[in-house]
Amino acid sequence: MKLHALLKTKKKVQRIGRSGKRGSYSGRGVKGQKSRSGRRLRPAERDLIQHLPKRRGFRNLQKFDRPAVFNVGDLSMKLKSFATGKGPLTLDLALLKAAHLLAKSYHGEVKILGVGEMAFPVSVVNMRVSKGAKVKIQKAGGEVAGK
Q1: How many helices (H) and strands (E) does the chain have?
Q2: Is the pLDDT reported for residue 123 higher than 90?
Q3: Closest of 102, 33, 119 to residue 68, by C-alpha
Q4: At 8, is the pLDDT very low, low, confident or very high (cuts 50, 70, 90)?
Q5: β-pair partners for 124
Q6: Residue-range definition of the domain harbouring residue 81
Q7: pLDDT confidence of 19, banded at 50, 70, 90?
Q8: The overall pTM is greater than 0.85
């Protein structure tokens, strides 16, 4: 067997759009995406993806919950109805939830800051209290226990 005697197995591909027997448009029609050379139709999935909204930006999750912050003056106004003349009012998470100052599902920390004045005695239990708030609570006849 000789190389020049082998039959060619590859068929010559007709190059469409190069004039010839079918005229200048060669069966492709006039204009449009399908008539262009090197055309590649965009897949339908691409159009579906473009209809979806973009999710812009990225934020890391917080490593810890920030405490709920209350001022002494605000607590004095909001808890006035809970205060009775007998002894200091016990200020804890349960009271803040009962007064609708915190959500019932809240389990984080609470910190009290010293802006404003306290009108009645309060004993603070298991809450963080700033130095200024501690002074104002003690001045009103209350006490700070816990954190």
Answers
A1: 4, 6
A2: yes
A3: 102
A4: confident
A5: 91, 144
A6: 68-145
A7: low
A8: no
